[in-house]
Every structure is written in structure tokens, then in C-alpha cells.
TrEMBL record:
Keywords of the record: Magnesium, Metal-binding, Molybdenum, Molybdenum cofactor biosynthesis, Transferase
Listed pathway(s): Cofactor biosynthesis; molybdopterin biosynthesis
Protein name: Molybdopterin molybdenumtransferase
Species in which this protein is naturally found: Salinarimonas ramus
Swiss-Prot/TrEMBL GO biological process terms: Mo-molybdopterin cofactor biosynthetic process
EC number: 2.10.1.1
Gene that this sequence comes from: moeA
Similarity comment text for this entry: Belongs to the MoeA family.
An example Gene Ontology CC term for this record: cytosol
Domain MoaB/Mog: 207-345
Cofactor needs: Mg(2+)
Pfam families: MoCF_biosynth, MoeA_C, MoeA_N
Catalytic activity: adenylyl-molybdopterin + molybdate = Mo-molybdopterin + AMP + H(+)
Length: 433
């Protein structure tokens, strides 16, 4: 959804009516540095699950979140079937190598065979139902043809090469929880159940607004002290791949009243508003004040996190609010933590911190401890080993992000680490959706 330029300018009543000297979250001292887990919980608490349900054809549900848990309405597979191309046999207590058995039938996938008697076999193909009387399948590679019979090359035991009914799921099993993301795997599981329509939550509608007098629209001429807006396209892309409906809310100047107008207009149509820039407590930071002028609340959250200045979490009308720092890498890291927690809550699932996988560091590490640090890192593959090389970076540099495979997470208390020390690695593929 794209707003027309003129839409930004409507002065919503909420702004004009907002009491100017009311207590404002932005006047509260920034909380002492929070753990990342505590900050995630605080951020998520401002968002409420989207309750509207869209009943969609399964193929249109990719990227959505299930409105309810789903149970199996069939056992799958529904019948015992062959796992290989070969011969259905009656193994009983076991058959010896060298036994010669006549072939009395042929069962392709989709066909049904007739009952086997003692000593008889039927040609069978992968996916075909095991005929009554049979209790094993012999792979075609494990027999020798002898006229209209086969000779077993090895012993056969009951149950061999049969995929039993209900092996994947049994009738009534819980297939997925409400809030689960519908991806290709879940689509396959539901499709295998014959489920053609699925109840999903409406996609969260998320607005992205950039703030800052210096921030220019890509495509516009660049003034001498200006920078192009990198955050908004980045965040819009992140939200799109995270299954949100996005609202591109443009750029607004460092003016609390203008920002408040834009915010209160967005609050009427969005589940979450994400801003970048001006989220800290400096005299040129206006996001908290603007949220308040828009009739909302914004709580500064400081985490012992690098990169990442204080962020704002709160609510404006019915919309949750997330104010990100302006530096793009800080914005990305803070969004990946707090923004993801808020999106999880909107989707009706429980927020959890992103889980990194331990990968040994390639080089020694030395740094000032005290903050959990997310460092762009590259995976090096050498002699069958994977190691993590940390890239030189700072909160404003985008090139190291593009050169990296993900973030290495360095725990707050670590000052030195020897090569080979494992660090949690967050692949961009997972972190960015
Ligand atoms: P702030 O958080 O407003 O203090 O901004 C911190 C830094 O981020 C400043 O150098 C800003 O110019 C820069 N910045 C703010 N917004 C953006 C944006 N949308 N894209 C790229 N850089 C930005
Ligand atoms: Mg600024």
C-alpha cells in the first residue's frame, strides 16, 4: 500500500487535541540497560495479536500465520505402501536367500493388488498399496529373475521396505500450532491432508516512516548535507519478506508536530508503526515527543547492545510503535530483536530471541566488554571446517553487511577470545526472513 503525498498533510484531530504538557514517556529517564530478553518482552507487550482471520486457499497462504492450531484429519499415509520398486512378499517368520517364488500379479502406484498366498509374490512399485497377505517388500536389486518367478538374493524379514499407514501422522495429531508461519514445508503437510483452505491471521499492516532533516528520498537530488534514506527501503523489504502488508509512509522532517501528524494518521490504519531516526534522548531527537503529541506513549528501552542506541517501544491509538535508531546497522539489529518480537506477538506466537548456531572464530578477538555485540561476519570454509571471520564495521556502514553472511553475536562479558572459540552465528537468511 502506498500513500499519496497529500495524505501526509491532513492534520488529524488527535494531534491538535493532545495536551502539550502532559507526562510523556520521553520525559522519563531511559531505563537502566536491559538484557535483550527483558527488552524483547517489553517490546512485545505493546503489541496485540491481529484477530482478523483470512480464510485462504492453501497456495495463497505462504508467509501467513495460522489463526488456529491444525489437527490431522487423516492418517498419512492412509494405507501401508511400498517404499521401493520390487516384489511384495509374505515373509512370515522370515525367508531365506535362494528361495524361488512365483510372481502372480503386478501392482503399480494407484492400483490395488489381490491377496497373496503363502509362497507367492507380486511385482510392486513405489507408492503402491501392499496387497493383503503381504508383509514385506524385496527390492528389485535383491532378486534374480527366473522365468515367471524370482529368486531371493538375501534373506527377507517382515516389515522390510513398507511405509506403514500413519507413519507420518496419525488421525487427530496436531500438525502445527496457531501462530505458526505457513511455509513450503507446512503447505506440503497440509496439502498431504487434503486441506485446500486454511484460516490465517490477516497480515499485519506495518508502516515505515523515516525521520530527519538530512534524509532525502532516493531519486531526489542530494543536498550538500543530506544523505539518502537507506532505512525505509531496508525495513520495507524486511517486512515484506516477513509476511507483512507494508505502508510506505515516506520521510518526515525533524519537527515533532509534523511527525505527530504523520504518526496519528498512520495509527488509524496500521497494526505497527516503525520509525527510524531521532529515537534517542538528544535535543534533536523527536520521535518520543511526536508519539506523545499523537496521543500515544513511547517508552525508551536501552539494551546493553552494540550497535544500537536506545530505541522506543510503545503504542499510538491501536497501533504498536517502534522507534529505531537512525544508523542503518543499529536500525537493522534493533529491528531484528525488538521488531521481530512485536511481529511475533502480532502473529499470535510467542516472541523468542533469535537463535544463533555456534561457529568457531577464525581470528583472536579483543574488545571492550559490557555490551552484547552483533558483528557482520563471514563463513570461511577451509579443509572441511567452517570458521567465522569478523568484518570491520560500525553502525553506519552498509557495505560490511552486504559482504557478510550473517551476524556473529559476542556475549556482553567477553573481552578476549582465542581463535576456535565458538560464537553464535545468525545467518542473514534466517534473521532477515
Ligand atoms: P539519529 O538516530 O537520528 O541520531 O541518526 C543517527 C545517524 O543515522 C545519523 O548520521 C543520521 O543521518 C543517520 N540516519 C538517520 N536516518 C537515516 C536513514 N533513514 N537512512 C540512513 N541513515 C539515516
Ligand atoms: Mg536525527
Amino acid at each position: 500500500m502506498q500513500l499519496k503525498a497529500g495524505e501526509y498533510l491532513m492534520p488529524p484531530l488527535a494531534v491538535l487535541d493532545a495536551p502539550a504538557n502532559d507526562a510523556c514517556a520521553c520525559d522519563r529517564p531511559t531505563s537502566a540497560k536491559l538484557s535483550i530478553d527483558a527488552a524483547l518482552a517489553r517490546a512485545a507487550a505493546w503489541a496485540s495479536p491481529v484477530t482478523d482471520v483470512d480464510f485462504l486457499p492453501l497456495g495463497a497462504a505462504a508467509g501467513r500465520f495460522l489463526a488456529h492450531s491444525v489437527r490431522a484429519r487423516l492418517s498419512s499415509p492412509a494405507f501401508d505402501r511400498s517404499a521401493v520398486d520390487g516384489y511384495a512378499v509374505r515373509a512370515g517368520a522370515g525367508l531365506e536367500a535362494g528361495e524361488r517364488l512365483p510372481v502372480i500379479g503386478r501392482i503399480a502406484a494407484g492400483a490395488r493388488g489381490t491377496r497373496l498366498r503363502e509362497g507367492e509374490v507380486a511385482r510392486i512399485f513405489t507408492g503402491a498399496p501392499i496387497p493383503p497377505g503381504a508383509d514385506a517388500v524385496v527390492m528389485q536389486e535383491d532378486v534374480r529373475q527366473d522365468g515367471n518367478a524370482i529368486v531371493l538374493a538375501r534373506p527377507v524379514h517382515a516389515g522390510a521396505h513398507i511405509r506403514p499407514a500413519g507413519e507420518d501422522v496419525a488421525l487427530g495429531d496436531r500438525l502445527a500450532e496457531g501462530g505458526a508461519r505457513v511455509d513450503a514445508r507446512l503447505i506440503a503437510l497440509l496439502a498431504a491432508q487434503g486441506i485446500a483452505m486454511v484460516a490465517t491471521r490477516r497480515r499485519p499492516r506495518v508502516a515505515v516512516l523515516s525521520t530527519g532533516d538530512e534524509v532525502a528520498e532516493p531519486g531526489a537530488p542530494l543536498g550538500p548535507a543530506a544523505i539518502y534514506d537507506a532505512n525505509r527501503p531496508m525495513l520495507l523489504a524486511l517486512l515484506e519478506v516477513s509476511g507483512c502488508e507494508t505502508v510506505d509512509a515516506g520521510i518526515v522532517r525533524d519537527d515533532p508536530r509534523e511527525q505527530a501528524q504523520r504518526l496519528s494518521m498512520l495509527a488509524e490504519r496500521c497494526d505497527l508503526i516503525v520509525t527510524s531516526g531521532g529515537a534517542s534522548v538528544g535535543e534533536e531527537d523527536y520521535a518520543a515527543r511526536a508519539a506523545h503529541l499523537a496521543g500515544g506513549d513511547a517508552e525508551p528501552l536501552a539494551m546493553a547492545l552494540k550497535p544500537g542506541k536506545p530505541a522506543l517501544v510503545g503504542r499510538i491509538g491501536a497501533a504498536a510503535f517502534l522507534g529505531l535508531p537512525g544508523n542503518p546497522v543499529s536500525a537493522l539489529v534493533v529491528f531484528s530483536l525488538l521488531g521481530r518480537a512485536m511481529l511475533a506477538r502480532l502473529a499470535g506466537s510467542t516472541p523468542s530471541p533469535p537463535q544463533g548456531l555456534p561457529v568457531p572464530l577464525a581470528e583472536p578477538l579483543s574488545r571492550k566488554p559490557g555490551r552484547t555485540e552483533f558483528v557482520p561476519a563471514r563463513l570461511l570454509r577451509e579443509n572441511g571446517m567452517v570458521r567465522l571471520a569478523l568484518l570491520s564495521s560500525n553502525s553506519a556502514r552498509l557495505q560490511p553487511l552486504v559482504d557478510a553472511d550473517g551476524f556473529a553475536e559476542i556475549p556482553a562479558d567477553v573481552a578476549h577470545a582465542a581463535p576456535g572459540t565458538p560464537a553464535a552465528f545468525h545467518a542473514f537468511a534466517g534473521l532477515l526472513g
